[in-house]
């Protein structure tokens, strides 16, 4: 699955990021997120980095609209789907709680 960013950005390495390629997460990714931090938001960022191949600091450069699309893709993955990343609602923390 790919997400075309509404607001592309340039990452710390100077690369222009216009799309995100999303890979499905595995149980090992969830375990690694738990080892990374006990904080839900930090676990979510860790998982988003794993999903996209972005560095954690690059995630902070995502526009809020693009961050929502990534959260929606994550939620869809948690429930077993792989539909469009542009649907869904609610807080990002509840998506992590559902997966973890």
TrEMBL record:
InterPro entries: Phage_tail_E/E (IPR019289). Pfam families: Phage_TAC_7 (PF10109). It comes from the Bacteria. Residues 81-100 are annotated as: Disordered. Residues 83-100 have a biased composition (Low complexity). This is Phage tail assembly protein.
């Amino acid at each position: 699955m790919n997400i075309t960013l509404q607001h592309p950005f340039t990452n710390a390495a100077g690369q222009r990021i216009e799309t995100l390629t999303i890979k499905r997460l595995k149980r090992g990714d969830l375990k690694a997120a738990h080892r990374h931090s006990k904080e839900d938001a930090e676990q979510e960022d860790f998982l988003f980095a794993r999903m996209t191949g972005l560095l954690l600091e690059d995630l902070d450069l995502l526009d809020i609209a693009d961050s929502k699309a990534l959260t929606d893709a994550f939620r869809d993955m948690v429930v077993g789907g792989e539909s469009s990343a542009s649907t869904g609602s609610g807080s990002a923390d509840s998506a992590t709680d559902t997966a973890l």
